[in-house]
Amino acid sequence: MPQVKVITFARLRQIIGKKQFTMNAESIEDLLKKLFKEHGKELKKELFDGNGQLKHIYRIVVNGRSITLLDGFKTKLKDNDMVALMPAIAGG
Q1: Which of 43, 80, 85, 32 is nearest to 61 (CA)?
Q2: Which residue of 47, 62, 64, 74 shows the fewest CB atoms closer than 10 Å?
Q3: Helix H or strand E segment including 83
Q4: 47-70 tens-digit pLDDT
Q5: What H or E segment, with its residue span, contains residue 20?
Q6: Domains of the chain
Q7: How far apart are CA 89 and CA 91, in angstroms?
Q8: Structure pTM?
Q9: Long-range contacts at 68-71 (CB < 8 A, ≥ 24 apart)
Q10: CB count, 10 Å around CB of 2?
Q11: pLDDT in tens, 11-40
């Protein structure tokens, strides 16, 4: 199973309690399931809306590319991939 580096920001860092860590996961979906199991409903409630969709204020990025440009939650992970759980950046 691939080992990936996970980086967290803002509120997600507070919930998870780590700035970065490694984790074994085969896909973004697998990674999230493991994180939810480890960090409970608070993390899931923070990331997802009532319809099970990623809240618009958050982005999940693999090696600098949003999963919306890849295969979404089905995006496969490889050893040494970098996954960032981060707030969307607002400009203005």
Answers
A1: 85
A2: 64
A3: strand 82-87
A4: 999 998 999 999 999 999 999 999
A5: strand 20-24
A6: 3-87 (3.10.20.30)
A7: 7
A8: 0.92
A9: none
A10: 16
A11: 999 999 999 999 999 999 999 999 999 998
